[in-house]
């Protein structure tokens, strides 16, 4: 049976049925969509009952706006991929480690041939969603803050592997706050892609230094990869704009095309030009242009 037509949101979205990648952009492509968190009460109708209840429990307006923006954007993008109305999409969150209900979110089932994987993240007023044609994906964004010496010492001990601490110690003090944010987002993107999240301490994974092209270099000696596909991980830094840093990781490929798009137009805001693309071969998308703490 053909999937139901994607829904329209009065006053916000004229149609989402034509959004998404071209049919051949599925194997090694990752589309990244950025949006700004702001009050959009009309988007609440796209959420399911559990999401609406969670949004209502958030006391701070900024947290509520960020949550609604992120979850509505996910639903709009997945609706475009699957043809299912945004509010009818259902998600499954079983943890692959313990079987609990706090695992990495994914579609409850892939409708028809619409293979899609996704992840979302948010920080400050930036919301980001990553989509692939089925390859496991993780994304993270963070705000660069000027940390004092005590916080720098604490966080570097929690985030960095032994090898990375050597590189960190060689950095000028004025560069250390941003460097830690880059290390953090790269590692969290990988751990969200595997579905492990912070069940694996960030210090158990090593990535390249912030001044180098992003890549996973090692897990601690004696540890196995948390997923067979994690042995081949493609990691990219993104362009969220200052004062943010962001990274995306995709498992199972060593060649990835990443496109970054402005997603506010999908939420009813005026169209913005696409962001700068990450290094590598680029092809724009067609049509109307992710405990896992970000879900």
Shape: globular
Distance between the termini: 31 Å
Second CATH tier, the architecture: Alpha-Beta Complex
> Poorly predicted ranges (pLDDT <50, ≥5 residues)?
1-25, 271-295
Structure summary, number of beta strands: 11
Overall domain count? 1
Question: How much strand?
Answer: 15-25%
CATH superfamily: 4'-phosphopantetheinyl transferase domain
Query: From N to C, what is the helix and strand string?
Result: EHHEEEEEHHHEEEEE
Number of helices: 5
What's the CATH topology label? Ribosomal Protein L22, Chain A
Q: Within the largest sheet, what's the order of strands?
A: 4-5-1-11
**What's the CATH C level?**
Alpha Beta
Mean pLDDT: 79
Characterize the main sheet.
4 strands, mixed
Radius of gyration (Å): 19 Å
Structural class: alpha+beta
Helical content stands at: 10-25%
Describe this structure in words.
α1 (49-57) runs antiparallel to α2 (61-82). It is built from 5 helices and 11 strands. The protein is α+β, with helices and mostly antiparallel strands. A hairpin with a 6-residue loop joins β9 (233-237) and β10. The strands form 4 sheets. The chain has a 4-stranded mixed sheet with strand order 4-5-1-11, covered by helices on one side. The model is unreliable at 1-25 and 271-295 (pLDDT under 50). The protein is globular and about 50 Å long. The protein has helices at residues 49-57, 61-82, 149-159, 162-169, 176-194, and strands at residues 29-36, 91-92, 106-107, 117-123, 126-132, 137-143, 205-207, 216-219, 233-237, 244-251, 257-262. The longest helix has 22 residues, at 61-82. It has a single domain (29-267), classed as 4'-phosphopantetheinyl transferase domain (Ribosomal Protein L22, Chain A), CATH 3.90.470.20.
């Amino acid at each position: 049976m053909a999937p139901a037509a994607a829904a329209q949101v009065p006053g916000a979205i004229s149609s989402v049925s034509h959004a998404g990648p071209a049919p051949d952009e599925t194997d090694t492509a990752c589309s990244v969509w950025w949006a700004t968190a702001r009050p959009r009460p009309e988007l609440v109708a796209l959420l399911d009952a559990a999401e609406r209840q969670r949004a209502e429990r958030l006391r701070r307006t900024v947290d509520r706006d960020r949550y609604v923006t992120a979850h509505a954007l996910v639903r709009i993008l997945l609706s475009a991929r699957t043809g299912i109305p945004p509010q009818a999409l259902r998600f499954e969150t079983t943890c692959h480690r313990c079987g609990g209900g706090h695992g990495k979110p994914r579609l409850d089932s892939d409708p028809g041939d619409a293979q899609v994987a996704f992840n979302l993240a948010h920080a400050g007023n930036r919301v980001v969603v990553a989509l692939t044609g089925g390859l496991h994906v993780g994304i993270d964004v963070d705000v660069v803050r000027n940390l004092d010496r005590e916080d720098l010492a604490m966080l570097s001990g929690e985030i960095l592997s032994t090898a990375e601490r050597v590189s960190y110690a060689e950095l000028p003090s004025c560069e250390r706050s941003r460097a830690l944010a880059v290390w953090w987002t790269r590692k969290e993107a990988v751990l969200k892609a595997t579905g492990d999240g912070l069940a694996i301490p960030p210090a158990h994974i090593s990535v390249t230094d912030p001044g180098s092209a992003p890549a996973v270099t090692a897990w601690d000696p004696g540890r196995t990869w948390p997923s067979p596909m994690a042995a081949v991980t493609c990691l990219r830094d993104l362009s969220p704009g200052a004062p943010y840093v962001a990274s995306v990781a995709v498992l199972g490929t060593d060649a990835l095309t990443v496109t970054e798009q402005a997603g506010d137009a999908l939420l009813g805001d005026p169209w913005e030009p696409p962001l700068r693309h990450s290094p590598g071969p680029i092809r724009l998308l067609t049509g109307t242009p992710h405990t896992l703490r970000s879900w």
